[in-house]
Amino acid sequence: MTILENYDWGSRTKAGRTPKYPWDEWFDGQTRKIVQGENFTCKVASMQTILRMKIRDRADLEVRTRTTDDGSGGQAIIFQYTKVEVTDG
What we know:
2 helices, 16% helix, 25% strand, alpha+beta
């Protein structure tokens, strides 16, 4: 057995895979634009659902999303994760 001084628990999913999207980076509060075909390959509505579902068990975050034109005839999503004040009660 080995005792580890440090381990990066955020670098893998529960299933042990490397995450497909940089969630920790995306949770930083910045407003981001992701483009279908460049940053994700599923349908725009599916990606919006993924963005919402990723925080379903986290009371400390909420997400805003909007669909938009990517500037070259395709579709994109603008989104922002923001911290929510969690209160007891």
